[in-house]
Amino acid sequence: MQKITLNDGNKMPQLGLGLFQIFDLNIAEQVVKEAIDIGYRLFDTASAYNNEEAVGKAIHKSSLPRDKFFIVSKLWIDQYPYEIALKSIDKALEKLQIDYIDLMLLHQPYGDIVGAWKALEKAQSNGKIKSIGVSNFYPDQMKSLELMSSVKPAINQIEISPWYQRTDEVNFLKDENISIQAWAPLAEGKHGLFNNKLIAKIGRKYNKSNPQVILRWLIQRGIIVIPKTIHGDRMKENINVFDFELTDKEMSLISTLDTGHSQFFDHRDPMAIESIFGASLRSLKI
Ligand code: NAP
User: Which among 36, 42, 219, 233 could bridge 13 via Cys, Cβ 3.0 to 4.6 Å?
Assistant: First the structure.
């Protein structure tokens, strides 16, 4: 598997399996087991996904040594205050049945970011986490965190798909030497992605499907991808993207598909913050 070297020197597979919305722990464990057999080594979970235990069980039962895996997890907003974050990191290690996490992210740019980041730095310094990063941070928030911190975030995990390409933000992160991980790289199929004619035409030349063309397009932009699927045949399809290369013209054609908007929700919309994060933020009681 092709790897990306992070700004702290750690190496991370450029493609892995996303585990959002796999709520049943037995199914999640079976999905991770099947993915390991197919060749996946990077798994993207989170406290908020409630399936860290399943990832832990599948890894534990696998015959592969720990260092073959790259496990990503995330702290949720209500875990950000420093002491709670330290305890939550220990809890995640326990659930995952491992003695270090490869990459731990702050899931959202709200709440006690300072406390949470200090806890990530502490856990990194005592070996509980190898690399630390964030998710859903905009460039201004990223710059602010960078200026305050001793350790620069290794990664920003953000929504990127053909419909929401975020070229300026990607360029900003590259200039800052922060790696980019795309969530919802297939936009969860929204906006007809799996049937889009332009993407299909490009794919026919290489005998590749729409998901394969899109994952390849992201990989050629230097982005780490974590498509989610619970189906073995789709896992095989999604990982089979390292044997062809899109031309500059094809890359440019796909860039014309950008709508400039999230396919899910706008992190800068106060109403979205209220409805999605309100309960977690209120529970913090400053
Ligand atoms: P996604 O990976 O873009 O799309 C997943 C959807 O596409 C599922 O419905 C899956 O269905 C389907 N699919 C996958 N491969 C396919 C294929 N080859 N052909 C047809 N359908 C296919 O969306 P996502 O799960 O939202 O994002 C990926 C990962 O990013 C998540 O799992 C999670 O780890 C991470 N994430 C992070 C954040 C964040 O805030 N940091 C937010 C969202 C997601 P089946 O499962 O039925 O195959």
Answer: 42
